[in-house]
Sequence to fold (422 residues):
Amino acid sequence: MDQSTTVVESKPEQRSGQPQPPSDSEARYQRRAALLGNPRAKLSLFLVIALLLAAGVLLWRYFGSYESTDDAQIDGHINAVSARVSGHVLKLNVEDNQYVEKGTVLVEVDPTDYEVAVARARADYADAQAQAAAAGINVPLTNVSTSSQVAGTQAGVANAKAGIAGARQQLAAAQAQVVEAEANNVKVQNDLARYQQLIDKQEISQQQYDQAVAAAKASAAGLEAVRAAADAAAAQVEQAQSRLLQASADLRTAETAPQMMQATRSRARSAQANADRKKADLQQAELNLQYTKIVAPVSGVVSNRTVEVGQNVQTGQEMMKIIPLEDIWVTANFKETQLRNIKAGQAAEIFVDANGKKYKGHVDSIAGASGARFSLLPPENATGNYVKVVQRIPVKIVFEPGETKGHELRPGMSVVPKVWDK
Fold:
């Protein structure tokens, strides 16, 4: 036991005579000293530090060369399409989300009533033209009567003859109106009879039948009116013949020629004004007929369509909306502290969240007030506990030409714009 113990205790004495290896801290210190003492190591360390400083400067200059915000979205026009005339929708040519070109016929309204209105207005205009022509004939003839008493008498006779011709033209026009009114009345009365059969079978609404009854009464009244006008025109012919017999007596009353001339000119102007009014009525009727086809005011995508075939639309009723996808822009709400580096004309890059693409643009303008000022209830800071809050100002950024031709962007999409300082 003692010998073994002696042997065990003698081993440390043998190790103590050998050289001891350095500790871990001493080894690290020696390696660091050797590394710092190496010229290549010093040069490498200097290059690494220089590269890090250069990278830091470049990153600082890059991040400082633009202003960006994620509070931005795409904006655009929303064109409402409404009816300019009332009527029954016969045809619907578009669906929701369909792209249409400007001028495309979207909705067709029943044009029958408006075609009848055009025909009536055209007939009224022709009648007014005839009356204006008849009244215009009297002006030069009556003017001759003012030159002298003899010439005035002769002109009076000629004027009376011309008056007969004009009255006969009026009579012919009135008789033509009677024929037309009789034909229209027969058609309307026949339509009323058919509507009577349909209402008895309950195949049409009471409103449609009431309209047919009103139209029949109006047609009958119109027929009586044109017949009365024809009787009046016939009476005018007789009066014109009487004026011809009285022309010989105008020699004794030649001093009244100027007053007669003034009256004749007034009648001619009145007849011409009536013809102009009838022409305007005809143009309005033709426009109303054109308005039965509702066309697209701009090229874009149809949205929010509310009209259906068979629906009765009223004047001014909105039927759908069209969003032009090429006339869009970005509204970016920048912090007021960012505006010091933003000016109109600066280049911009727009990142779109929906497709992950980037688009080129430039700053168009800066809004005249902060976004809070356009809210329904603008903030009121005239209180004793005012806390300064950084406001956001809307900045309009427009796309460069050709960037939106793919029609990928939609108003309301979220974007992240970058506005470069140079």
